[in-house]
């Protein structure tokens, strides 16, 4: 199964090559100089801005847990002479910080909410810069027999049987939003699902901790491919469902309208979509994991 999905992703990466040329405080790849705010700590505000030469970026836990930001951050700081404060949380919290003007830039993965953010006047433009896919992962013995199903069929089987445990992010993140979309495609109201029994567990945490919880509970969960690959060696989980258009996962960068440093915010958007950095994003993780964690896609309407 892993060989099949990885081969598929690599083929897709080749087809789209022309487009381009982190949540747990204990995450090993946490940037040394970033301001870290874990989404499960109940933070309602962020610390006051330190100075005009700092740029605040709210990012998703998946982009942080994979180590992508710790990889790119020093490059941007050196090129532009600015200090980045990388705040990580679910998409919902990141957008909230953007609406309040607490950050200058957000990098998230929920197209509908991003477009609404721009329409409401909080962001200048939604700019896709990378993508991968979501996976439904579970223990190798696949107790619910989900292998070979479509995502909505798999969720329907979990709901109808109510036996195999499913761990949800349950945190208003982009991954949580994708999960809700799959439940809707399966014909279920999300509120009915989350209150249907003990088989459905809301972790209320980032992607890394959610994967660890699913592993400990011999459960299924929905994960972005990048974080799963980064954590896979420490887990007894594997992809069970990996096919379906609904599993596409696009990351975008948005400059916040109320940014206190709009010129530098624009520089970060340009940096992430530049040919050089798009190539770096495409190669990120290949040496360590043998596969792309992200496929660059600057310039594509995704």
Q: Could you give the topology of this structure?
A:
Blueprint: H1 2-15, E1 54-60, H2 61-65, H3 68-80, E2 83-89, H4 91-100, E3 105-108, H5 111-119, E4 123-138, H6 151-161, E5 166-168, H7 174-185, H8 190-194, E6 200-202, H9 207-216, E7 220-224, H10 225-231, E8 238-241, E9 248-256, H11 262-273, H12 275-283, H13 286-289, E10 295-296
Parallel strand pairs: 1-2, 1-3, 5-6, 5-7
Antiparallel strand pairs: 3-9, 4-7, 4-8, 4-9, 4-10
Helix pairs in contact: 6-7
Protein architecture, described:
It is a single chain. The protein has 302 residues and is α/β, with parallel strands linked by helices. The chain has two domains: 2-132 and 250-296, Periplasmic binding protein-like II (D-Maltodextrin-Binding Protein, domain 2, 3-Layer(aba) Sandwich); 133-247, 3-Layer(aba) Sandwich (D-Maltodextrin-Binding Protein, domain 2), CATH 3.40.190. Helices cover 40% and strands 20% of the residues. The protein is built from 13 helices and ten strands. The protein has helices at 2-15, 61-65, 68-80, 91-100, 111-119, 151-161, 174-185, 190-194, 207-216, 225-231, 262-273, 275-283, 286-289; strands spanning 54-60, 83-89, 105-108, 123-138, 166-168, 200-202, 220-224, 238-241, 248-256, 295-296. Strands 1, 2, 3, 4, 5, 6, 7, 8, 9 and 10 form a ten-stranded mixed beta sheet that branches. α6 (151-161) crosses α7. The longest helix has 14 residues, at 2-15. The radius of gyration is 18 Å and the shape is globular. The two termini are 27 Å apart. The model is unreliable at 1-44 (pLDDT under 50).
């Amino acid at each position: 199964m892993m060989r099949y999905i990885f081969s598929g992703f690599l083929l897709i990466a080749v087809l789209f090559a022309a487009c381009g040329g982190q949540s747990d405080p204990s995450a090993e790849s946490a940037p040394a100089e970033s301001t870290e705010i874990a989404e499960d700590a109940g933070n309602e505000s962020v610390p006051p801005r330190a100075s005009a030469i700092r740029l605040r970026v709210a990012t998703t836990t998946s982009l942080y847990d994979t180590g992508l930001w710790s990889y790119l951050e020093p490059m941007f700081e050196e090129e532009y002479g600015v200090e980045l404060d990388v705040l990580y949380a679910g998409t919902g919290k990141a957008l909230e910080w953007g609406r309040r003007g607490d950050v200058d830039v957000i990098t998230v993965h929920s197209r509908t909410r991003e477009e609404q953010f721009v329409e409401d006047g909080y962001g200048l433009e939604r700019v896709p810069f990378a993508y991968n896919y979501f996976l439904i992962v579970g223990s190798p013995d696949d107790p619910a027999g989900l292998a070979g199903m479509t995502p909505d069929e798999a969720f329907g089987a979990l709901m109808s049987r109510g036996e195999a445990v499913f761990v949800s992010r349950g945190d208003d993140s982009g991954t949580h939003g994708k999960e809700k979309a799959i439940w809707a495609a399966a014909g279920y109201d999300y509120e009915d699902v989350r209150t249907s029994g003990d088989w459905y567990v809301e972790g209320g945490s980032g992607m890394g901790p959610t994967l660890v919880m699913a592993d400990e509970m011999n459960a299924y969960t929905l994960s972005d491919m990048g974080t799963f690959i980064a954590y896979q060696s420490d887990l007894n989980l594997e992809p069970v469902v990996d096919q379906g258009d609904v599993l596409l996962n696009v990351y975008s960068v948005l400059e916040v309208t109320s940014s206190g440093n709009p010129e530098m915010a624009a520089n970060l958007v340009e940096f992430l979509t530049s040919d050089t950095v798009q190539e770096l994003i495409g190669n990120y993780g290949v040496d360590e994991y043998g596969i792309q964690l992200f496929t660059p896609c600057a310039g594509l309407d995704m």
